[in-house]
Write a structure and sequence with these properties.
- The protein contains eight helices and six strands.
- With 234 residues, the protein is an alpha+beta fold.
- Helix 6 packs antiparallel against helix 7.
- The chain starts with a strand and ends with a helix.
- The relative contact order is 0.08.
Length: 234
């Protein structure tokens, strides 16, 4: 095995075009890729087989492999193969194999950057908590025989926004479960809903438009669950 320091292809030209267009939001750059490479080695398959004591022939000397080790210890491999022995060039084989290995780093580092951006975005985190709280509530409703709650992805915009507002409430302070109910009821009343013995979206009546302490225990449990999810994940 040998250390190798070979130049990148035309990524620098693409980088310059990106800069000219003013696309300077967080992104992975060629410099980031290179800075993340902690070590690199190259070898031909034939040389590796002989080093291990395996029988081989000249055909395996036409395949070059470059191994790139990243700073977190992960390794990617690139390869180049030559069909005609007369065309084999060791230096060119290394460059092509290295580029093949580098190309594998772009999606990996892009994913890592996107994950970091998502975790750094407070709204994204709150949306994630709202989704979990909604799904916990949906599962609880199903356990009670109520299958009317849609999945988060299918929920109407007002329902998802209501969950987000509930998350904002409990993230902003140490409020009890009754605070969730008060916030929910306020939203309903402002939207024209009133108390009614049956839930009726057309008539806008709902049996839970009552003070928290007048709710049935299974309804109070929903607010306890919501609060518990938010405090566990915030």
């Amino acid at each position: 095995m040998h250390n190798v320091q070979s130049p990148r292809s035309d990524d620098d030209a693409i980088e310059q075009e990106i800069l000219r267009k003013g696309l300077t939001a967080p992104r992975v750059t060629p410099a980031d890729i290179e800075a993340n490479i902690a070590a690199e080695h190259y070898f031909t398959v034939g040389a590796a087989l002989r080093a291990l004591g395996h029988p081989t022939d000249d055909a395996f000397d036409l395949t070059t492999v470059v191994a790139l080790k990243t700073r977190n210890g992960f390794t990617v491999y690139g390869k180049s193969a030559c069909a005609s022995p007369e065309n084999f060039n060791a230096e060119l084989g290394v460059k092509i194999a290295r580029q093949d290995a580098v190309n594998q780093l772009w999606p990996l580092m892009g994913y890592a950057l996107r994950e970091k951006l998502a975790n750094d975005d407070p709204r994204a985190k709150l949306d994630s908590i709202a989704r979990v709280a909604h799904e916990v509530n949906r599962s609880y409703c199903q356990a009670l025989g109520d299958n009317s709650q849609p999945a988060w992805e299918d929920a109407p915009a007002w329902q998802r926004e209501s969950a987000r507002m509930g998350v904002d409430l409990h993230v902003s302070g140490d409020f009890g479960p009754e605070a969730s109910h008060i916030s929910w009821m306020k939203q309903k009343v402002e939207d024209g809903w009133v108390y009614g013995p049956q839930k009726d979206p057309e008539a806008k009546t709902h049996p839970c438009i009552v003070p928290f302490d007048q709710l049935a225990p299974e309804q109070q449990a929903k607010d306890h669950l919501f609060r518990g999810v938010v405090h566990a994940l915030r």
